[in-house]
Amino acid sequence: MRLNVPKKRIFKVGTPFTRVWHDNPFLTGSLQSLTTLPETKKRKEFLNPFFSKAAIVRVEPSLHRRKLRLFLDTLQQQASSATSTSASPGKEDSSEQQQQGSGVVDFFLGFRCLTADTIMDYCFQQDLNALSEPGFRSETVEAFIAGFDLALVATYFPNFFAVLNGVIFRLSEGVRRKYFAPVYGFQTMQKLAEERLVHLEKNPNCASKTKLPTMFDAMLAPDVAKGQVTPSRHDMIADGCLMIAAGTDTTANVLGTVLWNVTQNPDVEAKLVQELKKGMTDREVVLSSVELEGQGFEYLRAVVKEGLRLAYGVPGTIPRRVPKEGAMLGGRFIPGGTIVSAGIYLQNTDAATFPDPFKFDPQRWLCDAETHAKRDRQMLSFSRGSRACIGINLAYATLHLTVAHLFRRFDIKTTGYTTEHDMEWNDRFVPVPNGRIKGLVKVREE
């Protein structure tokens, strides 16, 4: 039963509404698949410190800002190349030539290379080097993207998917890569997580030599006094797959949503750039996420917040089972055992809370404290309560850093390179657009 039910009752901490898991064979055993609060709490005890705000800030200089600089440097090269090409004599500036020119960037891929490199390095101390691939065409990231094409099949037809996956697993890697890209994408995530776990099992003391212990380091060294027990290897690998999948696509999708909407709205872009120029007088200097979360960057944060609202995270149902005694929801009694849902799409586009809900309007977040709190409670992009996304601090740091420095340094034209049809999306567990957001990149004038 799908109801626009009060999420505070269903998703609050300690809720009696239990999770319903769909037996995705790659994620079963991960934090996402745990259905009871006690087992969820035990797993989060390992992961929460790793994703805390303090942990993110500590590693940011050597991770987030380093990855961001690689991303920005690549865009700078594209912009410089486009400028020199357009200045060459005898060149006609046709639309077709522009789209084929080196100044046009596939941001769909670029954002995913940025987020994939960040999450892999952060969680596993293993760099994909996706940002170094020409045109951001990383084979591994392309495999990740293809994997989401089967996410809905795994979600709603888990038994069929398990059988299909078992058959495909028996094929050679070359055949899987060529003919079964979606399954191969999931298996690539699984392989990367397993390789890192095996390495740490064989080298238990290597964490002290790295900039930050990995998520597996904590799991392999449980605190016995707290009653912690190391999860099985299968479950740890599943958690690794979860972190790759959740940390790559959803954040990249928000960045694409922001880029499209800002570049399609001159007033929004002008306000954002004006604020960034005032707060970032030297466009070459990379500020910290802490600085961007302080005074002087209120409109930036409103732009990111609105991007999160309209990117939807996981737009489909978030199923929960009604407790055995039943519950009153929306003025109706729902029997115990019934599966209900309060999806992110429904919550984030509630017209009563967000007037003109499908309009990208950062100004709606620059309001009085009471209204802001009401809208923040309504927005479900990171879920809520005991099941809330543990990567929220990582996501916000990546979003604030990327949006701020991208628009401070570059003037990006998406009109003529991306269409509204390209940006319309389909539900593949995460939103997957019809096309890819692309844009012509130029260095922004001071």
TrEMBL record:
<dbReference type="InterPro" id="IPR001128">
    <property type="entry name" value="Cyt_P450"/>
</dbReference>
<dbReference type="InterPro" id="IPR017972">
    <property type="entry name" value="Cyt_P450_CS"/>
</dbReference>
<keyword id="KW-0560">Oxidoreductase</keyword>
<keyword id="KW-0479">Metal-binding</keyword>
<comment type="similarity">
    <text>Belongs to the cytochrome P450 family.</text>
</comment>
<dbReference type="InterPro" id="IPR036396">
    <property type="entry name" value="Cyt_P450_sf"/>
</dbReference>
<protein>
    <submittedName>
        <fullName>Cytochrome P450</fullName>
    </submittedName>
</protein>
<keyword id="KW-0408">Iron</keyword>
<keyword id="KW-0349">Heme</keyword>
<dbReference type="GO" id="GO:0005506">
    <property type="term" value="F:iron ion binding"/>
</dbReference>
<dbReference type="InterPro" id="IPR050121">
    <property type="entry name" value="Cytochrome_P450_monoxygenase"/>
</dbReference>
<keyword id="KW-0503">Monooxygenase</keyword>
<dbReference type="GO" id="GO:0016705">
    <property type="term" value="F:oxidoreductase activity, acting on paired donors, with incorporation or reduction of molecular oxygen"/>
</dbReference>
<dbReference type="InterPro" id="IPR002401">
    <property type="entry name" value="Cyt_P450_E_grp-I"/>
</dbReference>
<dbReference type="GO" id="GO:0020037">
    <property type="term" value="F:heme binding"/>
</dbReference>
<dbReference type="Pfam" id="PF00067">
    <property type="entry name" value="p450"/>
</dbReference>
<dbReference type="GO" id="GO:0004497">
    <property type="term" value="F:monooxygenase activity"/>
</dbReference>
<feature type="binding site" description="axial binding residue">
    <location>
        <position position="389"/>
    </location>
    <ligand>
        <name>heme</name>
    </ligand>
</feature>
